Fold these 2 entries.
Entry 1:
Amino acid sequence: MSKSADAGLEALFAAAKAARERAYAPYSRFFVGAAIRAPSGAIYSGCNVENAAYPQGSCAEAGAIAAMALAGERRIEAIVVVGDGEDLCTPCGGCRQRIREFADAATRVHVAGPEGVRASFGLEELLPHSFGPGHLGR
Ligand code: THU
């Protein structure tokens, strides 16, 4: 785990924190925001959206990825995930795979609390030996 220098990190953190304000999490009360910076420099954000039928809830990262894809972008340069509490709000297993789809060796995953970024990872650290588009010839 290492903190990494990232010029646009403050703006990306601000976007993730703002997204967290919109989180719909009446069941867990665990509010999460995520923001992706894509190669164009644009930022795409998302929040968790829970559901009374619990498994239908979705993570903040999934919302941010959907917004990125809708805009026609296909690569995650960096993503910031903002949660709360003492523990690092690292992406869940499913979201690690979601990020993997659009990641490369340079992609940075920054994990933050409301006060700022706490830790930064490469995707290989979070999801080693992963399965990806290359396995399907893409
Ligand atoms: N959650 C996220 O949105 N992203 C994460 O990285 C971790 C967990 C959400 C899912 C659920 O709505 C709540 O946090 C508690 O698990």
Entry 2:
Amino acid sequence: MRIPIIAGNWKLYKTVAEGRELVTGLLAGLGAVTDREVVVCPPYTALFPLGELLANTPIALGAQEVFSETQGAFTGAVAPQMLRDVGCTYVIVGHSERRQFFGDTDATVNRKLHAALAGGLRPIMCVGESKPQRDSGQAEPIVTAQVRGGLVNVSAEQLLNVVIAYEPIWAIGTGDTATAADAQAMHAAIRATLVELYGDEAAQTVRIQYGGSVKPDNVDELMSQPDIDGALVGGASLKADSFLRIIHFQ
Ligand code: PGA
């Protein structure tokens, strides 16, 4: 039984004060959520104060990025144990915006994923195809290759702590969601790849989130699909009411 996981990716939004306001609103409206996991991923600058606010609450803290080394002369970098230190349990790796604007490749994503696991964090590894790749019928081989590339040398035991997020690039921030059927088809292809790599039992435990314009009005249909185990939410996670509605999917 996979416990659904709804994560908010705040991207480059929210000061500390704005983050406090959002988290306070989420905690106020959350109620009892025993059958799903909730994560927020603020920018680095807000992690420490929000980690204090979220301690002993049902909302987990995640970061949006991590470096692959634990210390050293790496100006601007943040290491996994530093994220643990401020209360993070999750970290996003390989988001398409990191691949597009910050040079992430499957190889660097794989290194960051290993570093995150070694540092006691649960990575949310993002994969997804571009519009031209989908239009040319390449979406599935490209996404499953990203899955394989990101999971190089990850053991079946480590896999238990990995979440995969399928985020078609053309659906991110565009309002143009994949249909529930198309998303399900890709999630099934990702799971089939996991079965090949790790066997059926391990593959069935992995949560695969969908991301890309998840909103209050499409979350229920997406979450009703058998291989969609959660959502990675950008824009709609920035307001308490819309994120709460997504968290409370039917
Ligand atoms: P979006 O972003 O919900 O704004 O499309 C999702 C993401 O990039 O994780």
